[in-house]
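During the first year of the project, the team set up a workflow for recording each protein of interest as an amino acid sequence followed immediately by a discrete structure-token representation. This format lets reviewers and collaborators read both layers of information side by side without switching files. As required by the reporting guidelines, we include two representative entries from the current panel. The first entry is reproduced here exactly as it appears in our internal archive.
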Amino acid sequence: MKIKNYMERIVVEKLDELLQGRTDICACEQCRTEMVTYALNHLPPRYVSSHRGEVFTKLDDMNTQNIADVSKVLVKAIEVVSTNPRHSM
């Protein structure tokens, strides 16, 4: 049985959108991983075990409120990680 947290895919895709064109924020692999981790720890998981479940979850996650919730948490994640990077600039 294969189970995955679909929220991870949503967070990564939305983070890509939010960081696009931002030159004022470090978007190295380490910082991106920290941002995704922060967001996933502050959002409810969306586990799926089948393609059908993934489709239904994707439809539900296109809900305006769900998009806003993910965006809000990601903005905070970007702020936290970019002000306290775990590496030297």
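The second entry, processed by the same pipeline in the following quarter, appears below.
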Amino acid sequence: MTDDLRFTEVTAANRNRTERWHPGFPDDNEWTVADWSNALCGEAGELANVVKKLRRYECGLRGPLDPSEDELRAMAGAEIADVYLYLDLLAVKLGVDLPAAVVAKFNRVSERQGFPERLPGG
């Protein structure tokens, strides 16, 4: 487990790698905001498909060709990572400071609901 991985480290590496496929990212026009959003939604759809198969286990309806539950959980982890990485790229394309946005949103919801949990920096 990588407990000390930081948003900024992921964003820097993700952006550098993306510039290999999309020179000039995020200022290029090769992919629009809609393209990045569609890629994110595609990965979320792949995750939903894995979760659907996990749900079959919960209901006792496993299909004969479905992977094992452990394999599905590993697949879900990979798809969650894909969703995060595309979300990060979409934020970069839009000029959104993702860590700041997460802190602000989390703290607003906690405050609105009267919960004590707060993220630092907000």
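For the second entry, the following points were noted during internal review. Residues 32-95 form one domain. Helices lie at 7-21, 33-59, 69-94, 98-113. Both points are flagged for discussion at the upcoming steering committee meeting.
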